């Protein structure tokens, strides 16, 4: 997962391939709570691993549920409707799908609980649910601003005396989660028929359909009269289904449906696996909206295939009450349409993770769009001409859907990059979203940025390059390690490093399974970081570098590291030979005395005895050899920026490289 301060998406030109989506957040958290309220053990398969589900699992553990997790499979040993823990302080993060149903369940069962979250959670309304619970006789108090979390439930020891004779009335025009919370909590106390009446128009009805469907899976059949009256039958009791599978998230599918409509061009498709047109999630109806805009969508029970159809996309005027989350994706698709697009009946956007109407309008204007917003609608004028687009740094408001939506702007026809601030916010529902997007996206090699950090031995170039790559979320290439790893692989294959085995070693080098992750060097699944740092490994690397066909193979292999979203490469000839067209070239150096002192500290820390004078002599001799080589001599590229770090720290060196990089960005 990208945990950088920002992620720069270079201009993307097309897409094609298969994506497997994570489980639905809405289904995952509902299933977890229903399993916790049931008796026995429920095995939940394909559970979403995200911030919101982790919040729910942590709360269930605090409440005494058994939780055994292995990958995406979780076994929940339920409470059978009886609390084992009657006092707890529960942190809910920013998970509306956790705090609202938990509030209702704990309020009707009794006990002494506090529920709180991040600052944004304390700005998200919960007053309509609290009003309904107070009608019932539950004790619920605000400990901050009235109408919003944090909450204090109970506190008087005995279970609440509930009033179940009259219908419980709850507003439905702010969030459907209030009704969902009551539907999930009231079967716990349904000694008689319990009626819930919705006041006003119920928004987000498809999410209530998810709730009713899952309640039925756990043994609760709710009678529904339209969308205004719901009856939970007397004697209701949760029964575990034993096993249950979580569908992939239909809201997350919207980004890849849009991707297929925008970026597949005349060939190729985007195939989505894990959710299909038979999904119980309301947001699957995004498929209908995408088709209205011109996308070609085929599907089955558990898959969808999307390709571009009409282009530019068709403008639409659509009531989006039935797809409130996925409708955000339509707003960005509207940038690629043939006229103004209006999305209506989206007032719920205002009370989500952020005010999404304001956020979407603000960020689309940064891209150059003309946007009109109202209390419950947004109207987007398309960016019909490439010259209308602007490179933009998108503020994401700690909102996963804002971040994912605006990634689609990287396919703009102007060939402009897009910066997504705080990309890790997608962890709320789709931690690997950007990795998944980039895995099916492609662009011209020239668009993939490369930063080269060259320099002499012990200049700190490797340390600086690793840190720069980490800060930008880019791939990393240690070119010197490539030769050392090749020598190690040849040795393991029983190949002597000589001209007689040159062809065989070159063949091996072409597909060498080397990668650089977590500050380590990996050969296939083995950490070989220490093995390739020995004196013998260095000598073998020199022998490898003397074999022309092996060098040619390794040049091609190094080029393959230039992958989305970008690359930081360190070595001695990255900017002069391997990536002569790199976006930024840095030549990092330091005095021989300074480098000898640094190397001395490193060796002493490893228990290796040496002297600074001998190290300095070795470094000066090596500099002379490297700079006088007939092939790829050590020297700065003509357009390299020189950075002498003799008197500055590694951190300052990293900051300087990043400052140079920022100075070349269009944001």
UniProtKB/TrEMBL annotation:
Q: Where in the cell is it found?
A: Cytoplasm
Active-site positions on this chain: 325 (proton acceptor)
Which GO terms of the molecular function aspect are on file? 3-phosphoshikimate 1-carboxyvinyltransferase activity; ATP binding; CMP kinase activity; dCMP kinase activity
- For 3-phosphoshikimate, which residues are the binding ones? 25-26, 30, 175-177, 204, 325, 352
Q: What is this protein called?
A: Multifunctional fusion protein
The species this protein belongs to is Rhodoferax koreensis
KW Hydrolase (keyword) present: no
Keyword Ribosomal protein present in the record's keywords: the answer is: no
Task: Extract one GO cellular component term from the record.
Answer: cytoplasm
Q: Where is the Cytidylate kinase domain?
A: 451-659
Its UniProt pathway annotation is:
Metabolic intermediate biosynthesis; chorismate biosynthesis; chorismate from D-erythrose 4-phosphate and phosphoenolpyruvate: step 6/7
């Amino acid at each position: 997962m990208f945990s950088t301060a920002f992620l720069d998406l270079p201009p993307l030109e097309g897409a094609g391939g298969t994506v497997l989506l994570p489980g639905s957040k809405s289904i995952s958290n509902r299933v977890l709570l229903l399993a916790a309220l049931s008796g026995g053990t429920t095995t939940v398969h394909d559970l979403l691993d995200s911030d919101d589900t982790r919040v729910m699992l942590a709360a269930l553990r605090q409440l005494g549920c058994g939780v055994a997790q292995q990958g995406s499979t979780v076994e929940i040993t339920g409470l059978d409707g009886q609390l084992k823990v009657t006092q707890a302080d529960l942190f809910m993060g920013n998970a509306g799908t956790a705090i609202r149903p938990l509030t209702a369940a704990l309020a009707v069962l009794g006990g002494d609980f506090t529920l709180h979250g991040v600052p944004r959670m304390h700005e998200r309304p919960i007053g309509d649910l609290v009003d309904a619970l107070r009608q019932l006789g539950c004790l619920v108090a605000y400990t901050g601003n009235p109408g919003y979390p944090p909450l204090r439930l109970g506190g008087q020891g005995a279970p609440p005396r509930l009033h179940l004779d009259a219908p419980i009335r709850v507003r439905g025009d702010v969030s459907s989660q209030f009704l969902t919370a009551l539907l999930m909590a009231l079967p716990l106390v349904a000694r008689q028929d319990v009626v819930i009446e919705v006041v006003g128009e119920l928004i987000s009805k498809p999410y209530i359909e998810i709730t009713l469907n899952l309640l039925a899976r756990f043994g609760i059949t709710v009678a529904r009269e339209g969308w205004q009256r719901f009856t939970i039958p007397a004697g209701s009791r949760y029964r575990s289904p034993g096993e249950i599978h979580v569908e992939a998230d239909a809201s997350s599918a919207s980004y890849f449906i849009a991707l297929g409509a925008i970026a597949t061009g005349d060939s190729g498709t985007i195939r989505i696996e894990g959710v299909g047109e038979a999904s119980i999630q309301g947001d699957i109806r995004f498929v209908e909206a995408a088709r209205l805009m011109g996308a070609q969508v085929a599907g089955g029970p558990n898959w969808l295939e999307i390709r571009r159809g009409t282009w530019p996309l068709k403008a639409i005027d659509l009531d989006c009450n039935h797809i409130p989350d996925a409708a955000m994706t339509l707003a960005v698709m509207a940038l690629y349409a043939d006229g103004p697009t209006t999305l209506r009946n989206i007032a719920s956007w205002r009370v989500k993770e952020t005010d999404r109407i304001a956020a979407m309008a603000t960020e689309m204007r940064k891209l150059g769009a003309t946007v009109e917003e109202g209390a419950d609608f947004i109207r987007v004028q398309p960016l019909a001409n490439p010259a209308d687009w602007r490179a933009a740094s998108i503020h994401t408001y700690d909102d996963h859907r804002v971040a994912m939506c605006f990634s689609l702007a990287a396919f703009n026809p102007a060939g402009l990059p897009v910066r997504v601030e705080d990309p890790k916010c997608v962890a709320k529902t789709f931690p690997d979203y950007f990795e998944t997007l980039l895995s099916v996206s492609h662009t011209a090699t020239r668009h993939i940025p490369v930063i080269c950090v060259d320099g002499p031995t012990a200049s700190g170039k490797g340390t600086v390059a690793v840190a720069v790559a980490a800060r930008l979320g880019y791939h990393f290439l240690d070119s010197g390690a490539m030769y050392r790893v090749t020598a190690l692989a040849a040795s393991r294959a029983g190949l002597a490093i000589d001209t007689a085995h040159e062809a065989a070693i070159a063949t091996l080098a072409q597909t060498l399974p080397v990668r650089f992750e977590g500050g380590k060097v990996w050969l296939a699944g083995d950490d070989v970081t220490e093995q390739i740092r020995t004196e013998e490994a260095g000598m073998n690397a020199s022998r490898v570098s003397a074999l022309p066909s092996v060098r040619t193979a390794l040049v091609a292999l190094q080029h393959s590291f230039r992958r989305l979203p970008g690359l930081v490469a360190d070595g001695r000839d990255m900017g002069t030979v391997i990536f002569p067209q790199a976006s930024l070239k840095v030549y990092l150096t330091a005095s021989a005395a300074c480098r000898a002192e640094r190397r001395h500290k490193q060796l002493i820390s490893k228990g290796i005895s040496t002297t600074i004078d001998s190290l300095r002599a070795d470094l000066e001799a090596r500099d002379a050899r490297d700079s006088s080589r007939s092939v790829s001599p050590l020297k700065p590229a003509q357009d390299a920026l020189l950075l002498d770090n003799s008197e500055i720290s590694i951190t300052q060196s990293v900051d300087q490289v990043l400052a140079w990089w920022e100075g070349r960005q269009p944001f």
